[in-house]
Amino acid sequence: MAYINRLISKGGIWSPLVIVLCLLVGTPTVSAESYQAGTHYRQIGNGQVGQGATIAIDYWFWFGCASCQLFEQRLTQLQSADTEWRHIPAQLRPHWYFHAKAFYLAEQQPQADQLISQLRQQLIDDPQGLSDIDSLIAWFVERGVDVNVAEQQLMSPLLNQQIDANLTKQQHLQIRGVPTVVIGNQYLVDAGMVQSVEEFIGVTQYLLAVLRQHREEAGFEWTDEDLLAQPEPVSAQ
């Protein structure tokens, strides 16, 4: 993996095009028994497991990232009744700050699903676009959001606090690129640690299984209704 890390690293920030090429490399997937901390994932927690009803999973992304699009096609392999996913827009480049604001503004609107879908496509088509407040306001107004609502919510102190808190957390976790997944506040997996989308899914499933076992050992038990079927194998694209 060292040679891949050298290829995809540029000023500490990965190129989305290179990331997707890395994820599409047709190398064999490592077996679950071979997943190693420091190689396929990072342990970031102290080993204590939460006793809540679900395992929190933070998914750091950018809509303009091709590898995020590939990963999201397989999210159903990881989503289950005992996981709670939170999508967090990364801020690894200056204009991603405005894309993060756009994501949160879209989430607050009645037509949130439609706006988020359109925002995703907009950034796929023009990754460098929507890079200032004026362009964001114009984009939302064109899609039916009241201009005053767009201005007020984009400049909201609460939204700014959320964006700043995400950036602080991103720096604390030393997130290097997207997609990145943080599982149960204990483990971190990113695209630089794996050689394919399938391996990314496999490592994440393995870490979820580890957390579930730890939760059971700590006394947390699922009811019969909560028991989950085994995940379907991930098919190669």
Automatic annotation (TrEMBL):
GO terms for molecular function: oxidoreductase activity. Gene3D superfamilies: Glutaredoxin. Residues 100-199 form the DSBA-like thioredoxin domain. InterPro entries: DSBA-like_thioredoxin_dom (IPR001853), Thiol_disulfide_DsbA (IPR050824), Thioredoxin-like_sf (IPR036249). It comes from the Bacteria. PANTHER family: THIOL:DISULFIDE INTERCHANGE PROTEIN DSBA (PTHR35891). This is DsbA family protein. It comes from Neiella litorisoli.
